[in-house]
Amino acid sequence: MADPVITTIEIILMVPVALILGVLFLFLFRKLNARFQWRVGPVIRMYSDLAPLIGKTRIWQPLYDILKLFGKDTIITDVAHRRLFVYSPYFSLLFAISAAFFIPFPGMELLSSVPYSLVIASYLIISSILFTILGPVASGSPWGAIGARREVELFLVSELSFVLSIFSIALSSGTLVISEIAGRGWSAPSILLSLTSGLLLFVAMLGKLHIKPFDMPEAEAEIVAGPYTEYSGKLLGIYFLSKTFLTYVLVALFIALILPPASTSIFWLPAWAFAAMVLVFLLTVVQVLNPRYRINNALYWYVKVVIPVGLVSFIIAFFIRVVA
Amino acid sequence: MGIIDRARVYSPWLYHLHCGGCNGCDIETLAALAPRFDAERFGIQLVASPRHADILVTTGCVPKQFIPMVKRVYEQVPEPKVVVAIGGCACGGSLFYEEEPENYAILGSPDLMIPVDVYVPGCAPKPEQIINGIVQGILKLAAKGSSRKRREV
Amino acid sequence: MSVPAKILKQVLSRYSSPMTLKYPSGVDPSKKYSQIPEGLRGVPERDAEKCVGCRACFMVCSGRATRIIDLGDKRTVSIFLFRCTYCAHCQESCPEEALKMTSKFEFTIGEREDKGAYVDTDLEMLRCKSCNTAFLPKKMEKRVFERLQEKMNPLVKEVVLSDYKKLEGYCPECRRARSTNFDTHTKKWLWLEVK
């Protein structure tokens, strides 16, 4: 493990970095989404005559959304279980931020070299999502409850995909420490493994970030806003903040596990940024090309795709392990 | 201007409340949000729950059976909020509203029960006019100042 | 160029620039609006010089947006734009062609009582000589007289005009009370017939 002082500094530095990167990823996601729909999306350079009135750029649009929500009333219904309703967003944010500490960023090793960091990181991600389920359940709103139920089902299957993916990689490299996995070398079978388990992790990301075929928890045409229906003001802002961090965490985890050397040293930063942008681009392509699945379709789809690919992935990982 | 006050101008979220009427204004409102006039350029988004909204966009005149819903949706929008009435029916009742004799089914424009900040008259207004009205609403929103109360409902 | 390359080029050219207008910004004024079709009916405008307050627009207004408000010596012809449906019936029916639909559409109003929400014209009223009630806009009286002269049968012109001098300035009620003095009163013609 690295020097504790450096680790502390890195951890303190990681929070703004993760926030900024998460906001930029979400902005890129929205912008690309808009361009695929033949429109402009949040403007990068505001028109010269409007700039003094409404600001020069909208690159920080997701951050403005969150900040605005902090300046609004918070409404709490009396049917809600108060304590759970109020504290769930905070816990969700807490776990999302602490998950960011276990994932290496180019130039920052953070806590990724502690033993079993892969297990810790995956548990923190799971906990963060769990609290986005608990809050809505406590809100007492039927829409929140339906959204939370869908979220649970989606969470279970996407977790299957997630776990199969990260543990086949862990099996192939024989370690549960993220920094060691992120520093592993390349070989012909490991490229194949990266493909299969990368696909699994990508599919898991779709479910966790509610990208289009799997956005049924937030299906605004059917169940208002799903889990977030009863949330308003600051609490909603904290959920959005937690989602911003989670976006960063999943993208960083994908690059750390699937594209090995990219998050080990500061010199790999351009490659890391490029990979992240490509990943967000791919997420956007999936989002714009797909309609929303029904929840049962999504379950079948996950089982149909994930189990064969997961098996192939495990066989490759086992093969690499035995040969090595 | 503080960062939160500025953020409020930068990201107004709309909740579209259709009270009644002929759907013409709703089509135009959606046209104002669609790619041709892409309102997301300025951070304007259509949200599904009134609890997330800053600007309540109402269209159509209010039937008497719909009065409680209008009031309830208005109360659910957290402060600071602005109401933009779109179309002749939402502004003054238009064809459907009569003072004398009173219509048995139609109450009239929503400003008889909730405070309306910006009126966008027209039958139906062009999308440009609607965007103009929403911009006026944003300017009023900026003037209202932030609120961080916790309201129990 | 091969066919797939052509298709690719077309697709790329289609998606290379978004279709969004720059609307609220007027950087390029000629491209500010999407499309203003010819004959777009926008806010009606009234020529205060031409309007005589004849109530024709009030009679045909489908949304009941037009109102006639008589207050003492003043008649206000008013269109409440919040209720106006831009149907242009008033433009069609106006005998003086005072009303015109403009293509102005980009306007919003903050309050119900705002002056911008009304298209108003104030007219001075004529008072009856005997009972002193305001009954007709002065302009309308003048205009009716002009029209009368234009369209009258030359045979009866002299009689009618002399009668008109007698009844000038009386309200319809008082006119009826004095009608027996007129040369055009039916009674006189009846008497002639009998004779």
From TrEMBL, chain B:
InterPro entries: Complex_I_20kDa-like, NADH_UbQ_OxRdtase-like_20kDa. The keyword Iron applies. It is an enzyme of class 1 (oxidoreductase). Keywords: 4Fe-4S, Iron, Iron-sulfur, Metal-binding, Oxidoreductase. Coiled coil: none annotated. SUPFAM superfamilies: HydA/Nqo6-like (SSF56770). Its EC number is 1.6.5.11. The keyword Oxidoreductase applies. GO terms for molecular function: 4 iron, 4 sulfur cluster binding; metal ion binding; oxidoreductase activity. Pfam families: Oxidored_q6. Residues 22-135 form the NADH:ubiquinone oxidoreductase-like 20kDa subunit domain. It comes from the Archaea. Its cofactor is [4Fe-4S] cluster. Belongs to the complex I 20 kDa subunit family. NCBIfam families: PRK06411.1. This is NADH-quinone oxidoreductase subunit NuoB. It comes from Candidatus Methanomethylicus mesodigestus. The lineage of its organism: Archaea, Thermoproteota, Methanosuratincolia, Candidatus Methanomethylicales, Candidatus Methanomethylicaceae.
